[in-house]
UniProtKB/TrEMBL annotation:
<dbReference type="GO" id="GO:0006281">
    <property type="term" value="P:DNA repair"/>
</dbReference>
<keyword id="KW-0227">DNA damage</keyword>
<dbReference type="GO" id="GO:0043139">
    <property type="term" value="F:5'-3' DNA helicase activity"/>
</dbReference>
<dbReference type="InterPro" id="IPR051055">
    <property type="entry name" value="PIF1_helicase"/>
</dbReference>
<dbReference type="GO" id="GO:0016787">
    <property type="term" value="F:hydrolase activity"/>
</dbReference>
<dbReference type="InterPro" id="IPR010285">
    <property type="entry name" value="DNA_helicase_pif1-like_DEAD"/>
</dbReference>
<keyword id="KW-0347">Helicase</keyword>
<keyword id="KW-0233">DNA recombination</keyword>
<dbReference type="InterPro" id="IPR027417">
    <property type="entry name" value="P-loop_NTPase"/>
</dbReference>
<dbReference type="Pfam" id="PF05970">
    <property type="entry name" value="PIF1"/>
</dbReference>
<comment type="similarity">
    <text>Belongs to the helicase family.</text>
</comment>
<feature type="compositionally biased region" description="Basic and acidic residues">
    <location>
        <begin position="570"/>
        <end position="580"/>
    </location>
</feature>
<keyword id="KW-0547">Nucleotide-binding</keyword>
<dbReference type="GO" id="GO:0006310">
    <property type="term" value="P:DNA recombination"/>
</dbReference>
<dbReference type="GO" id="GO:0000723">
    <property type="term" value="P:telomere maintenance"/>
</dbReference>
<dbReference type="GO" id="GO:0005524">
    <property type="term" value="F:ATP binding"/>
</dbReference>
<feature type="region of interest" description="Disordered">
    <location>
        <begin position="542"/>
        <end position="580"/>
    </location>
</feature>
Length: 580
């Protein structure tokens, strides 16, 4: 029928051209759909093969109640950490800026469509198209209010499904501090992901029956998972998360058929080990870890995109904000280097720590490497006026429970120490906490385990730059020497601080200002597809190869009435590693 083919006011040629475009789009959509089905079938084959072996695995692993107890603790932490700030959903929504509100409204509209579909009768569902889960990456530079948006979306989900009794929205992040910052737990703890040993990522493992039941019961009402600081999640761990969710919710859909929001900035820190989250998991990796022969790219096949562009953290220091943008994109010019060199101090770092503290600020020292943090922490500890007390690690039989709902990475100050407990005033908890020893299981060789009991605390005068991603600080002492080893590391450290005056550098090597051209290309791809109104980033020809080291001096105020060194800062470390 010609009337159906040609619209009013349209020529036959115009109608023909329009149908050609529509046909091309349909072909492209069909091709993408076929790829998605093929990719999902690959992962389903992997899970089916692993499920066939579960019975034998369960008979062995469930003989050890330690694992089930640890998973119960993890689920308790998921529940206990979700306390909220006391703000209502309406209050949170009213505080969103226009950028945040746009994304919030998009998420809200999608969830309301899901609820509308869920409430339909079986017959009505058969006559209408289902609403697919939302798998979305929310990006933005450091300080654009991603954490505040997370809190608002979390409150929204809880409000929409308020009649459900279990967790409807859970938040996680790759590190303890990042998780703590958004009221969540680590991704490894939430999903019981394999832990790397000796620097190698572990293979996926199936959860035994008893432990599986604990997780499934606590997460039975789950509607949304929010993964913050997604830049530090490897593509392999993303695959593991998908498989764990499919296992828990007995689904063959992406991420168990649940909504998943990925939040972060892929120009920040990449995974410590493994490929970036947007990379394809190679066939060789999948064959070695999962027994699969085909490569998979869950990120590219499933994730949509939006971006926050209004910087809230450095909005009072526009010059600093513009400088950070140059560092982030890999275009640190002479003006940027000159500005940063003026923040380098020559005072010994221990003295600088005291000066900043006596100015009424809580100093945080950020180093690129763990060994550098250990050395500084030992130096600070040695300068404390109190005597040293050594308590041996002991072997125990019974475990302790979850401690106050705290997660790995919570920061606090020691107030008292005894042989059986340590009193710590954590930064975000009103009352001091009594920290007791916890038991952990370590494999020393195949089928040979030891149990250690230790206080789950480590010194935290200094922390690694990886642990600080996601934080907002008034002051930070930062090492940007040749020890900076990763793209995005310098930017992350600098952008944690609200103003340039709060930045104190021990050293500045221009080569430390590295960026990842692959990450820039991925942002450009996502912008082109989902935010074409935003410009494409230029790819720097030099991603961090300058050789010279800049030094300078900040005028130091005279420290008057100097006091003793501060009590030790500690971070909660639930790994409870064996003693040296």
């Amino acid at each position: 029928n010609e009337d159906e083919l040609v619209h009013d006011g349209e020529t036959v040629q115009e109608a023909f051209d329009r149908h050609i475009v529509d046909h091309k789009r349909c072909v492209e959509a069909n091709e993408k759909f076929r790829k998605l089905l093929k990719c999902r079938e690959k992962l389903k084959d992997i899970q089916d093969a692993r499920a066939a072996n579960r019975e034998e695995e369960n008979d062995v692993e469930d003989d050890d109640p330690q694992l089930t107890g640890q998973i119960k603790d993890a689920m308790n932490d998921v529940r206990d950490i979700d306390t909220g700030s006391g703000l209502t959903l309406q209050e949170r929504e009213s505080m969103l800026n226009v950028d945040q509100k746009r994304i919030f409204d998009h998420v809200k509209a999608h969830l309301l469509r899901q609820i509308e579909y869920e409430n339909k009768s079986k017959q009505e569902k058969g006559q209408s198209e289902s609403v697919k889960p939302l798998h979305m990456f929310i990006s933005g530079v450091g300080g654009t209010g991603k954490s505040f948006l997370i809190e608002a979306i979390k409150a929204l989900v809880k409000s929409l499904w308020s009649t459900l009794t279990k967790q409807t929205c859970v938040v996680c992040a790759p590190t303890g501090l990042a998780a703590y910052n958004v009221g969540g737990v680590t991704a490894h703890r939430l999903f019981q992901l394999p832990i790397e040993h000796d620097g190698q990522c572990a293979s996926y493992w199936s959860i035994p029956k008893a432990s599986h039941k604990v997780m499934k019961t606590e997460l039975q009402d789950l509607k949304m998972v929010i993964i913050d600081e997604v830049s530090m999640v490897s593509s392999l761990n993303l695959t593991y998360i998908h498989m764990r969710m499919n296992d828990l919710f007995e689904s063959d859909k992406w991420f168990g058929g649940k909504n998943v929001l990925f939040v972060g900035d892929i120009l920040q820190l990449p995974p410590v080990r493994g490929q970036p989250v947007f990379d394809k998991v190679t066939a060789s990796t999948l064959k070695y870890r999962l027994g699969s022969m085909s490569a998979v790219n869950i990120w590219r096949d499933t994730v949509t995109y939006d971006e926050l562009t209004i910087n809230e953290r450095q909005k009072t220091d526009q010059k600093f904000s513009e400088m950070l943008d140059k560092v982030r994109r890999g275009f640190s010019d002479d003006e940027t280097l000159a500005t940063l060199s003026e923040r380098v101090f020559s005072t010994p770092i221990e003295k600088k720590f005291k000066i900043v503290q006596q100015g009424g600020n809580a100093p945080v020292c950020l180093f690129p490497k763990v060994d550098m943090c250990k050395d500084f922490n030992k130096t600070m500890l040695a300068n404390l006026p109190s005597p040293t007390i050594k308590i041996r690690a002991t072997n125990l039989i019974d475990g302790t429970g979850s401690i106050h709902g705290l997660v790995n990475g919570a920061l606090g100050t020691v107030q008292a120490i005894s042989e059986t407990r340590i009193t710590v005033k954590f930064d975000r908890i009103t009352d001091p906490c009594e920290i007791e020893k916890v038991k952990r299981k370590f494999m020393v060789m195949k089928n040979v385990f030891v149990y250690r009991s230790q206080f789950p605390l480590i010194l935290a005068f200094a922390v690694t730059i990886h642990k600080c991603q996601g934080l907002s600080l008034d002051n930070a002492t930062i090492d940007l020497s040749e020890n900076v080893f990763s793209a995005g590391m310098a930017y992350v450290a600098l952008s944690r601080v609200r103003t340039l005056s709060g930045v104190h550098l021990t050293c500045l090597n221009p080569k430390s200002l590295m960026v990842s051209s692959r990450s820039i290309k991925e942002i450009n791809r996502l912008r082109q597809l989902y935010r074409p109104d935003l410009p494409q980033y230029a790819i720097p020809t030099d991603c961090g190869s300058r050789k010279r080291t800049l030094t300078g001096t900040i005028d130091e105020p005279q420290a008057k009435n100097q006091k003793n060194m501060p009590p030790p800062k500690v971070a909660r470390d639930k790994r409870s590693r064996p003693s040296d």
